């Protein structure tokens, strides 16, 4: 049972980690990305269509990432160039993305809700010989797909980039004070658009991980609030890669636990399904409390 929960937790964490890290990058540039939900949906839909059309999971990853990147760029341009409110733009984008995808499902594929292909390519899982049968370690390291390992490597890379790379330092500076950074000759709008594009790409890859890695199908409601959970994760982690990823693992653990409790029976399913969201609310409340204490100490 422990191995099963660990494996499910890590599998479910991949979409969240990718989307949350994208949101953290955008937040470091000074924009709160509310559109992660829609960007994940675009990535999942474009990725599953491309992978089925070509028979290649790799093409699905590439197209899903590009689809998410284009969605992120469009949303960022509306915010930076038209000075639109980021909250309204993000919420509006989520609604538009859901509407377009739903219309395409009905108009092109003649289905409502779920799109399933019999020969759907899946993300390959890498089995480590000798470790697969080892309790706990096997569940952690063996049988994971390529996007899992990409997410694992992305966390330390982003931590290094924010602290040392010129792009990371300029992005952080833009988020702290756009006017001061612009006075040094830095193209802050370009940096924000780049951050929005990267955020969209990572959210799109999160959607691909959900469609090709977790479920093997597409449903117009499959994101199911994960974009907002990712937002809560990078808010809790204060846009730092490692704490953000750990928050995603916490949320995914409760998601895996509620799935396990539902399959085992004996628990009211409606109540069990609320576990991940209760965890999100509790974590956000804790983050708000600690943030208030921190500000109080600074002003004391």
Automatic annotation (TrEMBL):
What keywords would UniProt list here?
Cell membrane, Membrane, Sugar transport, Transmembrane, Transmembrane helix, Transport
Please give the Pfam families that the UniProt record associates with this protein: BPD_transp_2 (PF02653)
Give the location in the cell: Cell membrane
Kindly list the residue ranges recorded as spanning the membrane.
Answer: 54-80, 87-109, 146-163, 194-215, 274-292
User: What topology does it adopt in the membrane?
Assistant: Multi-pass membrane protein
InterPro entries xref list:
ABC_transp_permease
Might you report a single GO cellular component term? Answer: plasma membrane
User: What protein is this chain from?
Assistant: Simple sugar transport system permease protein
Q: State the species of origin.
A: Leucobacter luti
